Amino acid sequence: MEINNASMIAEMQQLAVESQPGALQPTVNTSQADFESLLGNAIDHVNGLQKQSSSLATRLELGDSSVTLSETMIAKEKAGVAFEATVQVRNKLVEAYKEIMSMPV
């Protein structure tokens, strides 16, 4: 899974500047939109890996000589690892949501 590090670093630097004493700057809440686009891009990337893996497997089964078994297996493993990572992130998000919802007001 490929994640855009530049946006995460920029957000961390902005938070570091804001956390310094006397640094009162008006802030715009763009973190929700950034998180949404980051998550959407990650899911699209995983979907692309799965489609590529499926396409390579189909071509290999049909006897396409330009596709090797090792290439197909690597693509399948990449798609599997990316999917497992996505499932783990989803599980952590659900767990955090449940914890927040169970907090007393």
From TrEMBL:
The keyword Oxidoreductase appears for this protein: no
Localization per Swiss-Prot or TrEMBL: Bacterial flagellum basal body
InterPro entries cross-referenced by the UniProt entry: FliE
Main location, first listed in the record: other
Any Gene Ontology biological process: bacterial-type flagellum-dependent cell motility
Keywords linked to the UniProt accession: Bacterial flagellum, Cell projection, Cilium, Flagellum
Gene Ontology cellular-component annotations: bacterial-type flagellum basal body
Keyword ATP-binding: no
Entry's Gene Ontology molecular function annotations: cytoskeletal motor activity; structural molecule activity
Database matches in NCBIfam families: fliE
Similarity annotation: Belongs to the FliE family.
Name of the protein: Flagellar hook-basal body complex protein FliE
Source species: Ferrimonas aestuarii
